Amino acid sequence: xxxxxxxxxxxxxxxxxxxxxxxxxxxxxxxxxxxxxxxxxxxxxxxxxxxxxxxxxxxxxxxxxxxxxxxxxxxxxxxxxxxxxxxxxxxxxxxxxxxxxxxxxxxxxxxxxxxxxxxxxxxxxxxxxxxxxxxxx
Length: 137
Fold this sequence. Notes:
Layout: H1 4-18, H2 22-25, H3 31-43, E1 47-49, E2 61-63, H4 72-79, H5 90-97, H6 100-116
Antiparallel strand pairs: 1-2
Helix pairs in contact: 1-3
């Protein structure tokens, strides 16, 4: 269900929380992928750059809120990742799906609510969870 980029973001957040930077580095991400993730997570206020630190290393950041308060939806949205049920235009969506659009809208909203209830602290961040290495950009 989760993309490799989302899994790497989870590993980076885990590493920042526990100040153990082995999980994310074990995935062998490219420096540009790490920089991209740090920028996205910072822009969405999930992490904060420590003063006078370089912005391209996870060690330079701290979590912007408690680890257990970060939910999967906020990570997916920060990265632009996840499963999307909606079309870009509500008008186009309703013209294509008619009365079914209302039901799909409910499914979309329920999915968002459930994802907001999943704390990253509940996700198993282990070798089993992160099965693949991250492709280099």
